[in-house]
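During the reporting period, our protein records have gained a structure token line. A sample record is set out beneath this paragraph:
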Amino acid sequence: MKRSFGLAIAALALVVGCHGQSPEYVRSEAMIPMRDGLKLHAVILRPAGSDAQAAAALPFLMERTPYGVDGYTPKGVARSKPELAASGYIFVYEDIRGRYGSEGTFVMNRPVVAHTAKTDVDETTDTRDTIDWLLKNVKNNDGKVGVLGISYPGFLAMMAGIDAHPAVKAISPQAPMTDIWLGDDFFHNGAFRQTYGFDYVQQLEAQKTDVPADSKEDQYDFFLKNVNFSGAAKSAKMENLPTAKVFLSSPSYVKFWKDMAVEYHLGKVEVPTLEVGGWWDQEDMWGTQAEYAALHPHDTKHEVFMVLGPWNHGGWSRGPGDSLGGDFGKVSFGGVKTGEEYRNKFETPFFEFYLKGKPGFDLKGVASFRTGENKWERYDVWPPKTGFSNANLNFAPDGGLQYCGASTDCKAILKTAVTASYIADPADPIPYRHRLVQSTYGTGSKWRTWLVEDQRFVDGRKDLAEFKGEVLDKDVTVTGDVMADIFASTTGTDADWIVKLIDVAPDGQQTMIVDEIFRGRYRKSFEKPEPIVANKVEEYKWSLHGADHTFLKGHRMMVEVQSSWFPLYDRNPQTYVENIMEAPASAYQKATVKIYGGSRLEFVTPQ
């Protein structure tokens, strides 16, 4: 939950692995002037008393956020960042413009602008202006600044690395909102994340604070009843909120969404950067890997790093990290306390090295926690190359799944052969998690861990295709960027394709390893959607994102293909309409889907 990484981290995070006694911190507040005359509210925490740390010149460690900074206290910083607090920093927490105590107008993921006039502002200029003021007005600072944040604050941390202030020496964008149309919060490959967009926009744009939406109605029933997003938005009286208006008018990858995207501004590495992400991040898994992919080609000084681990959204920042899950499924990591190890081996040493010159940060490229085997791996680059070979999982007739590695002899499957067929009915869409589906951040919501829910809850449905491998007689590792390459036809003129790679344990539990959706109308262009030709076999290829997982001996590999994932994603009518947000009830029609030979998943595996 995005909210939890503002106030809640300061108030609730566990004290773990603290090295040495944290100094006492003293709290102050400031209204910091920006170049256009508005002022932003900040909380400043620095060591107090008469000890050496209190008297020393220290670097700043800053987080900027839309989630409110009033709750940041001396005790809170010692709880949420015990290792860094023990070392001694000047912690700065700032409300971005238009939020909580800051002046101005809030703009969701405010785009980077050209800065042709003094009054041209964005998050890069607000960051620079904040740092200018801190350097001049906060005593005993050493002139160095680090910036970090998770989720929306992760987006803001990356803003500190664009047109960076000379004082910025290190940034850590963690689960950063990067491109909210291509793969982060609001759309994935053109498919609209309906419940999430519905709740989150109300939370941030209907108020200056961020009280979550908390409906008592099963959201599956609510969105089905309201037919489309336009009906749902009108029901909630949110159709005039700024981002909701764009949802309704511009569901394709138009200039508005591109202007908000971050990856197009990452043509050089300005400061050392530590990207962080989780395999089961329910909100922003895409951004971490996308920013790394954009920055790495320009990393001439070898200052771009990435850590990927077995976490949900922000799970690396709190608790031991030795398991993940809830009422409907759980994954354990062999007793390894992955969250503590991340904070002690990567995050703290990163800032200690780049802000204080202390040894101990030995990451050379990418650290990845390989699930299944439950151990850390280190790679020069992501996806890993040296020591790996290409491998496939081929969809076979009669629900079979054929693993094809470098040393495996695989039988060819004719592309004309139908390997599976099902009828997709928008009137009975497949739920994305166990029902009842609560509001995203509502009371009792299971949103945070739905990606590790046991997938057996959809067993027996006839509106999906299952491809299941034999019980493994040896371990099989899937690593790197997992690509779905699907050959399929539909009797409709539009379709959604959801592919899930699942680890089936000996006890029957089905855990998703990677999964992603693709909206068929965008198969040729995200900017210019077009109808699918009914009954024509077409190729659909898209990334299911990164994985580093070993399917253990005795387990089975399984792939599911389906055409709805409701109500997180809006229903595809399966009849082409110009704007799905306003699709009439008559457009929602059953369609027969066929999967053909040649369909497969592509990845790399250790040689």
About this structure: The two ends are 38 Å apart (CA to CA).
